[in-house]
């Protein structure tokens, strides 16, 4: 998954933060959503997995917000991010989406 973030260097194909990601999902953007497992308070983002499942958007969890920030190339912690598909890295995007689909559903 980290290779997808490093391959993605074009502006506009990586969204970060609760407000931006939820707005983009509501507007119809479909991409891989990665959620931080240590987000506080959890009430802020607990609705997003349900929304992703209803809209058939692949999503997964990472252990920490700091990992997501480092993946984006910043020192700031990020609660969630969305990677949008692009022709330049479509093969890698499809591979990551398949791996996420193969993960067990969190309970």
Concise summary:
The chain has 107 residues and is an alpha+beta fold.
Task: Please characterize this protein's 3D structure.
This protein has 107 residues and is an alpha+beta fold. It contains five helices and four strands, in the order H-E-H-E-H-E-H-E-H. The chain has helices spanning 2-7, 18-27, 48-54, 65-72, 90-102; strands at 14-16, 32-36, 59-62, 80-83. A four-stranded mixed beta sheet has the order 1-4-2-3, sandwiched between helices. Helix 3 (48-54) links the parallel strand 2 and strand 3 (59-62). The chain is globular and about 35 Å long. The mean pLDDT is 85.
> What's the pLDDT, averaged over the residues?
85
Mind describing the biggest β-sheet?
4 strands, mixed
- Kindly report how far apart the N and C termini lie: 22 Å
Supply Rg.
13 Å
Instruction: State the total count of DSSP E strands.
Output: 4
Number of helices: 5
> Structural class, please?
alpha+beta
Shape: globular
Keywords:
four-stranded mixed β-sheet; 107 residues; alpha+beta; 5 helices
Helices, strands, pairings?
Blueprint: H1 2-7, E1 14-16, H2 18-27, E2 32-36, H3 48-54, E3 59-62, H4 65-72, E4 80-83, H5 90-102
Parallel strand pairs: 2-3
Antiparallel strand pairs: 1-4, 2-4
């Amino acid at each position: 998954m980290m290779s997808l973030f490093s391959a993605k260097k074009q502006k506009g194909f990586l969204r970060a933060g609760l407000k931006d990601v939820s707005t983009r999902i509501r507007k119809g953007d479909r991409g891989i959503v990665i959620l931080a497992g240590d987000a506080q308070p959890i009430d802020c983002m607990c609705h997003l997995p349900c929304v992703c499942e209803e809209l058939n958007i692949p999503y997964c969890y990472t252990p920490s917000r700091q990992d997501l920030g480092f993946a984006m190339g910043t020192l700031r912690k990020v609660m969630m991010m969305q990677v949008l598909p692009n022709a330049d890295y479509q093969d890698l995007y499809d591979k990551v989406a398949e791996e996420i689909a193969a993960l067990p559903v969190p309970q």
